[in-house]
Each structure stands twice: as C-alpha cells, then as structure tokens.
C-alpha cells in the first residue's frame, strides 16, 4: 500500500524546480529525486555533450534505474522534461514557469550562453514543457505555477503541501 504521492516538478532550467523540490522534501518528508544526479551517479547516460555541457540521457536506463523507487511513492521527481515518465507513475505534474526576463538573468548567471541559452529561452517562451505536460498527462493532474521570486516559491510550496495532505486523506488505504 502506497502512503504518499508521486509528483514531478518540471520546467525549463532556471525556473526554480530544484528550489521547490528541496523545500517540499524538507517540509513533507517526501524524497527529492533529482534526475540530473541520478543520470550522473547511476550512469544513465550515453556520454557528455560538450556543446550543451550536459549528459546525454539514456531514457530506458534511467527509467529502469528509478522505477522501483518511484513506484513506492513518496517522491518528488525534479527534471526538465516529463513526457518520458509513464502516466501511471505520476499523481501530480507541477510545471514551474518564470518570466522570460527573470529567467534570462538566472541562466546568464549560471554561465549559459549561445545555443544552450537560446534553446532554453525559446522553450520557456513557447511553453514547450507546459504543452508537453498537457499532452502527456490527464489535464486534472497538471498544474502551472509561476516562480519569479521567493514569494512565488513560498506560495507554490504551500499549495503543493496542501495538495499532498489532501492526496493522503483521499488515498489512505489506496493501492500503489
């Protein structure tokens, strides 16, 4: 019997996914499953991409690596994409969004430049990850939240915490 939900927090790099996940994990006891860390630590990749300064993810190996862990519930998946995770794995999809000017400054401060900066900015402006979430999951489990400043993050975390409490009430005794 699963006693806690399975949540994915997704969005363009720099919107605040990890900040949300860390606070949620701290406040709720759910596990923060950083896919970036999993890819690196469990070698779920096909090597390094110098142009984008990131690992080339082997999605099948990644899913195999985390499936049992996710199925237990009680995890918050932190990743910039969501469509690779099966619908049955996820109870809530949180798409974190950010004003493009704020996002540009955040990414520039991280040292993003050139093609990587342009592609991430285009992705946010064109709502690519929001659309991906809406196409991949049932509409009622996809939530879009703004993350332009710390007040937004605090309010978002409180909202997700309230959702978790309600999920636990609604699913006490539910099958995994």
UniProtKB/TrEMBL annotation:
Enzyme class: transferase
Primary location: cytoplasm
GO molecular function: AMP kinase activity; ATP binding; ATP hydrolysis activity
Cellular component terms per the entry's GO annotation: cytoplasm; nucleus
Residue numbers binding ATP: 14, 16-19, 110
Keywords assigned: ATP-binding, Cytoplasm, Kinase, Nucleotide-binding, Nucleus, Ribosome biogenesis, rRNA processing, Transferase
Described function: Broad-specificity nucleoside monophosphate (NMP) kinase that catalyzes the reversible transfer of the terminal phosphate group between nucleoside triphosphates and monophosphates. Has also ATPase activity. Involved in the late cytoplasmic maturation steps of the 40S ribosomal particles, specifically 18S rRNA maturation. While NMP activity is not required for ribosome maturation, ATPase activity is. Associates transiently with small ribosomal subunit protein uS11. ATP hydrolysis breaks the interaction with uS11.
PANTHER family: ADENYLATE KINASE ISOENZYME 6, POS9-ACTIVATING FACTOR FAP7-RELATED
UniProt name for this protein: Adenylate kinase isoenzyme 6 homolog
